[in-house]
Amino acid sequence: MPSSPSPKATEDRVYTELYEAICERQLLPDTKLGEALLADHFGVSRTIIRQVLQRLAGDGLVRQEPHRGAFVARITLAEARQIYAAWRLVEATIIREVTPTMTSAQLQALRNLIAQERQACEQADYPLLTRLSSQFHMALAALSQNKYLGQFLRELIPLTALAYFYDVKNMPLCRKDEHSQILDCIEAGEAEQAVAIAEQHLDGIEAALDASASLDPQISLVDRLRLRQPSLSP
Ligand SMILES: [Zn+2]
């Protein structure tokens, strides 16, 4: 018999599941995150669920309201635009910094991530694509020698999942393969060209924000969690 996972490992698993479900926009802003429901769904104690919700609140992804419980956080369209404005600036600085020092192993790791994105595009798996596209930018940020810049983007980018609302199918992610174009320019040492494409790319995503899009409130929290394929084995 395999030994049962430690409470910390169990907490990490549930945290990762919920974190990814929010970043994939499977759990939409304002979804109520009921402790009892989640404890039941994941087969863990409510104590673990409370700890996980606390961590997600620390990430800015969950909002805790006195006497009402926890909800997936939401940001306004204006806040989403501010995030993209900040992201564009930091992205440009990171690209300029990493272009001269990028190793072939680092390039290969980023190309592998893009290959997974292509596969998600082909399979029309838009939730997965949403998460992988963010991961591309966070992986690029992680290569920065300035750990604060990397940390800043790793905190900032997941928050874009909380904006109402994106038309992922019509984003330029699949059609133009801009991540590959950015990486090609970095590989060729053309930092300014890479910055220009990255700015266009983020402009395109920002333009896909649609304040008038409505959400589908019919699907319950548990159904939404069941619909997504867990990325980690328990
Ligand atoms: Zn991107």
UniProtKB/TrEMBL annotation:
It comes from the Bacteria. SUPFAM superfamilies: GntR ligand-binding domain-like, Winged helix' DNA-binding domain. The keyword Secreted does not apply. Residues 8-75 form the HTH gntR-type domain. Keywords: DNA-binding, Transcription, Transcription regulation. InterPro entries: GntR_C, TF_FadR/GntR_C, Tscrpt_reg_HTH_GntR, WH-like_DNA-bd_sf, WH_DNA-bd_sf. The keyword ATP-binding does not apply. This is GntR family transcriptional regulator. It comes from Almyronema epifaneia S1.
